[in-house]
Specification:
Structural class: alpha+beta
Number of helices: 2
Strand content: 25-35%
Distance between the termini: 89 Å
Largest sheet: 5 strands, antiparallel
Length: 153
């Protein structure tokens, strides 16, 4: 039978292995830090329906019928709304906002082409931008202000 002093090296090695494992886990968590993107949207013409906020990451097309990285929805209060995307890794992103007045989940269009419902994008470019025009970098928490656009209204 071993005496307590004979087990001391075993416990020391066991404790050191645990400390190294904890340090490795902590460094992995720190290197994959996640961030948030707070999106404040204003300029709604009414409070009908919902607001759909789409987050696209680099390599995706900024189109409603394309795959999105994340989607949030919200109601409109006094012509404004705010949503927050959580757990976003570092990278290039763009936001597209749709005022879904009729709650059909789609952008209603005029027969001659332009949208009937309001849209907005990060960086607030005019028209319907490409990803590059609306993109922004996430390397820390980000706050965006987007103004809605309504054509022919």
């Amino acid at each position: 039978m071993r005496k307590g002093s004979d087990l001391a090296p075993f416990f020391f090695i066991y404790t050191m292995k645990k400390l190294v494992l904890i340090a490795l886990l902590f460094s992995t968590v720190v290197s994959f830090a996640q961030h948030s993107i707070s999106v404040s949207v204003s300029g709604f013409l009414n409070s009908d329906g919902d607001v759909l906020v789409y987050l696209y990451k680099e390599g995706q097309k900024l189109k409603l019928d394309e795959a999105k990285f994340k989607t949030l929805s919200s109601s409109i209060q006094k012509g404004k709304t705010t949503v927050v995307f959580q757990n976003i890794p570092k990278g290039q992103y763009a936001v597209l906002v749709l005022h879904d007045e009729d709650l059909n989940g789609k952008l209603k269009m005029y027969s001659f082409g332009p949208p009937k419902e309001g849209i907005g994008t990060s960086n607030n470019p005019k028209g319907y931008p490409k990803f590059e025009e609306a993109s922004f970098e996430v390397k820390e928490d980000v706050t965006l202000a987007i103004e809605m656009n309504y054509l022919f209204r």
